[in-house]
UniProtKB/TrEMBL annotation:
It comes from the Bacteria. InterPro entries: Ntn_hydrolases_N, Peptidase_T2. This is Isoaspartyl peptidase/L-asparaginase family protein. Pfam families: Asparaginase_2. It comes from Christiangramia antarctica.
Amino acid sequence: MQKYAIAIHGGAGTLLRGQMTSEKEKKYINALRESLRKGFQVLEEGKSAVDAVELAVKILEDSPLFNAGKGSVFTATGDHEMDAAIMDGSNLEAGAVSLISGIKNPVSLARKVMEDSPHVFLAGSGAMKFAKEKNLERKDDTYFFDQFRYDQWQEVKGTTNVQLDHTTSKNSKFGTVGAVACDKNGNIAAATSTGGMTNKNYGRIGDSPLIGIGNYANNKTCAVSCTGNGEFFIRSVTAYDVSCLMEYKNLSLAEASNEVVMKKLVAIKGEGGLIAIDAQGNISMPFNSDGMYRGFKNSEEENISIYED
């Protein structure tokens, strides 16, 4: 019988026991659990891996706890610029958007690009025009305003510094969200979404919307969603590198993902992690930071974690 499963992440970085209140930790766990269970329910109903990862990511985008969608951080100009990508491993179709604002669920716009356009990647005003044509749900600035995020921006506003999401140790938490899934037909998919860096300037784009870097899916190998310091993931073509090690060196999912995260990224001082799944429903979730919001679920087991256990 085909094993179906889903894995999610909500960012990686300096996540240490005792640094977070038990109340806030519970909120993170509950948000991750809702995303995980609703995404898995889609698979149980016999729907596609693409459907599952889109819904799981949408739920995380709707939470102010994570740096994506509603919880997106402020740019240097006080705006929100969001990125997202989705990929179908059954046919290598993919869609991605970058530098968009006001869209409630960027991952759904990325799926529209994949399914309703001849393109893979749309950005800025062009992506926004496409979103309007496709009637994507929009929200005004008040929806995206979060006092914690605003205060975080105030700390670095007017400087050239950027901040990688909120933490007691700045520059060490990476607030991307993502999901990977394998459905009952053995098809796999990946989706990733982010609000980028606090106080980012110059239209900076990270790894999340880049196919083969922050997001990738291929039935022959694996589906991957990354979270980390995007510049290092871009330089190492992280997601596709996992796939390549499986395809060309015949490494297992666990071997390939650990090789990339624990050796190749570490060698260039890249911090973060990834979640990955193959067409047999095997899951790997390595990270080289202190923690990563993460979870996985299949018909036999469910697990949600934050710290390095």
